[in-house]
């Protein structure tokens, strides 16, 4: 991997703002960003609303939380978690400096 392991991922204001919109009117559930084996490039991102676990890294902003589990953290070191709203669709995105290649849709990558 290219980035120091102690450099945590960063969440943009736009991603926190979208998470706040998703949680509007209900309890603020954290967004979990995880890495799992699979996908067309070897690893894939798992992004979903989920409760935090005791050993998760919790990133906070705008009254919202993004959680990353300790197994996924080295794969996401130095990554930027953002939200994109484009003609092809709206989604959370990850700019990952550890990925040597990724698929066209941006949901899987290799190291």
Automatic annotation (TrEMBL):
Organism name: Paracoccus halophilus
NCBIfam families, sorted: iron-sulfur cluster assembly accessory protein
UniProt name for this protein: Heme biosynthesis protein HemY
Pfam families for the chain: Fe-S_biosyn
GO BP: iron-sulfur cluster assembly
Domain Core: 11-106
GO molecular function, one term: 4 iron, 4 sulfur cluster binding
């Amino acid at each position: 991997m290219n980035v120091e392991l102690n450099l945590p991922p960063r969440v943009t204001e736009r991603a926190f703002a979208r998470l706040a919109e998703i949680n509007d009117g209900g309890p603020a559930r954290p967004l979990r960003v995880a890495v799992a084996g699979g996908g067309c490039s070897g690893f894939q991102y798992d992004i979903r609303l989920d409760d935090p676990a005791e050993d998760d890294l919790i990133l906070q902003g705008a009254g919202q939380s993004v959680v990353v589990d300790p197994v996924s953290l080295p794969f996401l070191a130095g990554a930027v978690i953002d939200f994109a709203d484009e003609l092809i669709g709206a989604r959370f995105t990850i700019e990952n400096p550890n990925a040597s290649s990724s698929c066209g849709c941006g949901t899987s990558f290799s190291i």
